[in-house]
Amino acid sequence: MPELPEMENYKILLNQKIAGQTITEVQINREKSINLNPVLFIKTCHHQKIIDINRRGKHLLFHLQNGQTLLLHLMLGGWIYYGTEADKPKRTVRKKLYQSIKTILQKGIQHGGYMDNPLFKDDKLTGGFNALYQVYHREGEKCNRCGSIIKMEKISSRKTFYCPICQT
Ligand SMILES: [Zn+2]
User: Which of 1, 34, 127, 148 could form an SS bridge with 116, CB 3.0 to 4.6 Å?
Assistant: First the structure.
């Protein structure tokens, strides 16, 4: 289930992608997913400009030009995608990627994250995740999984570390 960090991420991305744009078509794939009469729903959303997108808890709120708000909850397996059906990653790939991100985030939180500024004097937790890096900041060292040498590349001026065998 998408959690708070995911929803926050969607909020930021959706604001970049669709805020200020007008809804030109409304398609309802599952009537059960909306809590309004479909005709009324379409009438309310169609041709409306999306002013901005906010998040409240795990809900996304799309504020429309007519003062109405579209409230979105992704439920259990709910997953949104921006783009065409053709460039959408295959479901299994998405699921795997999502699970991996989730596991890593949880590990990161558990071990205090990567920012190594202690929060208080004997804070041993903050930054503890640094010692557990599998690839990040390990350029030239061996991959723990396959033994290949970790590479570093700059992608849009940000350093990206990866194992050429396991991650390509
Ligand atoms: Zn590897």
Answer: 127
| Helix intervals (H) in 19-149 | 38-45, 91-110
CA separation, residue 50 to residues 86, 132, 142 (Å): 25, 42, 49
- Cα of 161 from ligand 1 centre, angstroms: 11
CB count within 10 Å of CB 50 equals 20
Centroid of ligand 1 to alpha carbon of 32 (angstroms): 45
Q: Is residue 18 part of a domain?
A: yes
**Tokens matching residue 12:** 């930021």
Tens-place pLDDT, residues 42-65: 999 999 999 999 988 888 899 999
C-alpha of residue 128 to centroid of ligand 1, in Å: 23
Question: Which tokens hold the place of 90?
Answer: 């295959």
Tell me: do 126 and 137 sit in the same domain: no
Q: pLDDT for 98-111, tens place per residue?
A: 777 777 777 766 66
57: domain CATH number?
Answer: 3.20.190.10
Q: What CA–CA distance (Å, rounded) separates 54 from 61?
A: 5
